[in-house]
Design brief:
It is a single chain. By secondary structure, the protein is mainly beta. It has one domain (about 35-305): Porin, CATH 2.40.160.40. The chain is built from 1 helix and 17 strands. The strands form 2 sheets. It has a 12-stranded antiparallel beta barrel with strand order 1-3-4-6-7-8-9-11-12-15-16-17.
């Protein structure tokens, strides 16, 4: 199983699974078998309700610095290896593109600054997943998750005028961020119920910026429609994210931090007991943002994985 790993809106949140019925974004408690590999390639698109130029000016005139992003595109490569039947080690690295970044300042309320796109390799994340419980009679599993986000990504991307983007808009964070979580799975004859919680501890990174801790909580129900000739799973997930306000030089940014819950229908097709292709679309049903920020219209994930 390749772990999902949600992150802040400007950083990748996609995930993938291999095996029986199971979720796309929610982390399953299942682990890879000993000496087995899994590879995945995913693309994630996040569409925002971007501010118009007039809205940016109006917010700046009210005494607040504000920015806007049209959309974000992630391409994510993941791989996992079964060290034992109950211990899996995996990693993921994204390529990040933030489209059409704009900003207005309270000191210049009648001017909108066009910064263009920010793009580059994002931070590398390493996970270990240890399955400490497997009740065969009840088809229940539970796993502990430990991980570390390593400052591998680009942190010096520049805008169309040659100015360095703020860390919030960089593909990488420049910080070492540990992760810890728990996943549980209950399997039925044609269904599976999966749940997870995952907490990411943010530390100070590039440009004295702490992007804020992140707490993810997910619940998924999967149903196997048929097994032959291609395995087809239908999935519905609830994906929640709580994001702490970011700090720059120790000062909290009032226009940051959020609580968002997505309802995410999905499906996956599997064949040859090795290949899996999946698609997920997430729509916000709860969206509480601090200050002035772009709301998320939707997010979509498509991917393909291979078990070896």
């Amino acid at each position: 199983m390749l772990l999902s790993a949600s992150a802040s809106a400007h950083h990748p949140s996609g995930g993938a699974g291999l095996g029986e019925t199971g979720p796309v974004r929610t982390i399953s408690a299942s682990t890879l078998q000993h000496d087995k590999w899994a590879l995945a390639l995913q693309s994630e698109f996040i569409d925002f309700d971007a501010f118009s130029d007039s809205e940016l000016k109006e917010i700046a005139q009210s005494g607040s610095d504000v920015h806007s992003v049209d959309s974000i595109f992630h391409t994510i490569f993941s791989m996992g290896y079964g060290i034992t039947d109950d211990l899996t080690l995996s990693l993921k690295v994204p390529y990040v593109v933030l489209n059409n970044i704009k900003e207005a300042h309270k000191d210049e309320p009648d001017e909108v600054h066009i910064h263009g796109d920010s793009k580059g390799i994002g931070d590398l994340t390493i996970f270990s997943q240890y399955r400490f419980l497997k009740m065969y009679d009840l088809n229940i599993e539970s796993s502990l998750i430990f991980g570390l986000r390593i400052p591998f990504g680009r942190t010096k991307a520049r805008d169309i005028d040659g100015e360095r983007f703020e860390t919030e808009f960089q593909p990488g964070s420049g910080s070492w961020n540990p992760l810890v979580g728990l996943a549980a799975t209950k399997r039925f004859e044609k269904m599976s119920l999966d749940a997870d919680v995952l907490y990411t501890i943010a530390t100070k990174g590039a440009q004295e910026t702490d992007l804020g801790d992140l707490f993810n909580y997910d619940l998924a129900l999967s149903y196997r429609v048929f097994n032959r000739p291609v395995v087809w799973d239908l999935i519905v997930e609830a994906n929640g994210e709580w994001k702490q306000k970011q700090k720059i030089d120790g000062v909290k940014d009032k226009n940051s931090g959020e609580t968002v819950i997505f309802l995410s229908p999905a499906m996956r097709f599997s064949w040859s007991r090795k290949w899996s292709a999946y698609l997920s679309a997430g729509f916000p049903v709860v969206q509480n943002l601090n200050g002035d920020q772009n709301e998320t219209n939707m997010r979509a994930l498509i991917g393909i994985s291979l078990g070896l």
